[in-house]
Amino acid sequence: MSSSDLPLAWTRFFVFMFFSSLSVGSSSASVSQPHSNNNTSTCTKMDSKNTTECSEKLKESARLGSAFKLLDSNFFSERKVLEIAKGATEFTVPIIKANRKLVASKNGGLHNPSVLIFYSDWDREQAQGMSKRFIYPSLLNVQRPKNEEDIAFMTVLELGTLIKTKQITSQELTRIFLRRLKRYNPVLKAVVTYTEELAYKQAKEADELLAQGKYLGPLHGIPYGLKDIVAVPQYKTTWGSTTFKNQVLNMEAWVYKRLKSAGAVLVAKLVTGSLAYDDIWFGGRTRNPWNIEEFSTGSSAGPAACTSAGMVPFAIGSETAGSITYPASRCGVTALRPTFGTVGRTGVMSIAESLDKLGPFCRSAADCAIVLDAIRGKDPDDLSSKDIPFGDPFSVDIKKLTVGYLEDAEMEVVKVLVAKGVNMVPFKLNYTVESVQGILNFTMDVEMLAHFDEWQRSGQDDVYEAQDQWPLELRRSRVIPAVDYVQAQRARGKLIREVKESFTVDAFIGNATDWEKVCLGNLVGLPVIVVPTGLKNISNPPSSGTRRRTTINTGIYAPPNHDHIALALSMAYQSVTVHHKQRPPIDDLGPNDTPLPQFSSPPRRLHL
Q1: Are residue 423 and residue 438 in the same domain, yes or no?
Q2: 3-state secondary structure of 301
Q3: Angle value at C-alpha 327, between 326 and 329, nearest 5 degrees
Q4: DSSP secondary-structure letter at 224?
Q5: Is residue 188 part of a domain?
Q6: CATH code at 408?
Q7: What are 224's strand-pairing partners?
Q8: Which of 335, 204, 315 is nearest to 256 (CA)?
Q9: Which residue, among 299, 389, 190, has the nearest Cα to 177 in the 3D structure?
Q10: C-alpha triplet 348, 350, 325: angle, nearest 5°
Q11: Are residues 91 and 217 in the same domain?
């Protein structure tokens, strides 16, 4: 064999070793290794039905271990390799086969191209153009309420009017919201870090600018919170993880810079689930203000809970797969997951660069529009971001729109919009791609593992706060071939084209937390706004007679780059309803709630 043949030989050897490790019961490829009693016991505990099956699993594990050694990834314990082999057989390989079948073609380059793109432009500054800003409505006769509780639940637009008319100062507002944060956080566990010194500095600057006749817009002097995956200089950015709880990133995230330039005042870094997964973090688990026996879900747990409880007027969260829609729905707030690429992500912890999005949690859809207008635009260091020429949501003529409603839509919303003159029609999205959830998991897991490779190699996943499916999913990502990751992106492209062809309406209404729609919406890049539509009594309420409730919500979806349509429809709905104005019973916790009772955790789903 010549030296030029060596790379090919190694490639063939690796392919053999890798796929041997994924084949079930392939005795011809078995690597005979002695199995300790400890290994056999471990195998038996992992649902192996008999000794023969256990022996086969150990052989598969040994082959996989050999492949890991070849790939410089032989740092997993024998138990972890067993778990990975089991997961690859049960989950990874079926998804790989489904994606291959979906895009199979001998001349594959002509059909179902990948959604991955190559960006070669060095001159980033050329893409700095700014689209036209929204024209906000003016509020008349807004008067300062007499008590702080009423002030805390005013909208951004109302608070902005109070500041502009000098009925209240930014420093006063900052004190009010810091007091509320400190009062309710012991119950809700929604705050990681108070940025008190920075907040008063920014509030003072806002008041001084206004005294000079300089008004920066509706966010001038308005307090807010950031999900703690967003970097702010001189303050910890913990990512919710024990591993990173002392991490200080001395950089300004792009979204933070945008809000600072709009005059907003940062009062707190709010809880993210550990590594942006669910609602468990190194300080505990964040609770739902509407029913503290429930948790907020995540991973934008803090932004949802704090906005719901009137602890901040608005907050910035993020979503990869449900982290805005789920906590907003659980905590009963209005929140927008914008079109992918709307908001720059420089300085924000990345999970999956082709899925991550930042969006606002607010009191109303109008507030979501105001915050979106402040944070949108081209981030020169985020190649996926773009300056989208949205229409003005405050100027959309909704009577010219045709809006679909799915079978799971809240019919009260449909009736309200019909009364507002919207043409409502039954609707169904049609697509042939069956592995939507699998495509999302492949994409998310592989991209995140690329970022957290060293974290996993160092064994830090052993101290992960939520020891369930997430560390195991990342471990399984090691056995996803690069070819099959790209095949998943080709399948994703097919899904995008089919959804586009099926999207025959201007927008549609449906369940915001249906997992299939969460996966599809994030893969395709659909914007959705979560809108509160009511409350219902909880089952088995506590004897203390509190007002705990379960929130009811809907999602209004629009095509990519048409967030203004979803915003306009939700504003129309909220203009004649009061569901979004309801306040959770956080002052009515009941006599048995201090200290809080311990509840068994319900089965959890991946919310990122």
Answers
A1: no
A2: helix
A3: 65
A4: E
A5: yes
A6: 3.90.1300.10
A7: 266
A8: 315
A9: 190
A10: 85
A11: no
% of the chain surpassing 70 pLDDT: 82
Rounded-to-integer distance, Cα 452 and Cα 420, Å: 49
One-letter-per-residue 3-state SS of 463-524: HCCCCCHHHHHHHHHHHCCHHHHHHHHHHHHHHHHHHHHHCCCCEEEECCCCHHHHHHHHHH
Identify whether residues 243 and 362 lie together within a single domain.
yes
Instruction: Just list the catalytic residues.
Output: 227, 299, 323
Angle between helices 436-451 and 482-502 (to 10 degrees): 130
One domain for residues 198 and 57? no
CA–CA separation, 414 vs 553, rounded Å?
Answer: 13
* Cβ proximity of 95 and 108 under 8 Å: no
- Looking at the 3D structure of the chain, how many domains does it have? 2
Q: Is residue 489 part of a domain?
A: no
Rounded Cα distance between 289 and 582, Å, is: 12
C-alpha 53: how far from chain center: 39
Q: Are residues 238 and 285 in the same domain?
A: yes
**Burial letters for 158-175: b for 16+ Cβ neighbours within 10 Å, e otherwise?**
bbbbbbbeeebbbbbbbb
Domain edge (last residue) among 418, 452, 484: 484
d(CA 579, CA 209): 36
- 551 plus 442 within the same structural domain: no
**Of 177, 147, 142, which is closest to residue 163 (Cα–Cα)?**
142
Model pLDDT for residues 96-106, shown as the tens digit of each residue: 888 777 777 65
Which residues are CB-contacts of 560 (< 8 A; sequence separation ≥ 6)?
339, 340, 524, 525, 526, 527
Torsion of CA 255, 261, 265, 271, to 10 degrees: 0
The verdict on 545 and 401 lying in the same domain is yes
> In the numeric block, which tokens belong to residue 452?
């957290």
pLDDT average, residue stretch 1-10: 44
- Contact between 260 and 379 under an 8 Å Cβ cutoff? The reply is no
Q: What are phi and psi of 348, to 5 degrees?
A: -120, 135
Same domain, yes or no: 290 and 199: yes
528-539 pLDDT, tens digit per residue, is 999 999 998 877
Residue 212's φ and ψ, nearest 5 degrees, are -90, 5
**How long a stretch of residues is the chain?**
608
Domain that residue 467 falls in: 17-111+434-484
Residue 180 maps to a domain = yes
Average pLDDT over residues 438-464: 86
Query: Cα 538 to chain center, whole Å?
Result: 26
Which of 132-141, 265-274, 391-400, 575-584 has the lowest average pLDDT? 132-141
Residue 496 lies in a domain: no
Q: Quick check: 587 pLDDT over 60?
A: yes
Cα–Cα distance for residue pair 21/65, rounded to 1 Å = 8
Other Cβ atoms closer than 10 A to 49: 8
Q: Hey, which residues does 223 pair with through a beta bridge?
A: 265
Q: How far apart are the first and last CA of the chain?
A: 50
How many other C-beta atoms can be found within 10 angstroms of the C-beta atom of residue 82? 25
* Predicted structure pTM score: 0.84
Per-residue confidence (pLDDT) for residue 1, from 0 to 100: 47
Structure tokens belonging to residue 63 = 């082959």
Encode 369-398: b = buried (16+ Cβ within 10 Å), e = exposed: bbbbbbbbbbbeebbbbbbbebbbbbebeb
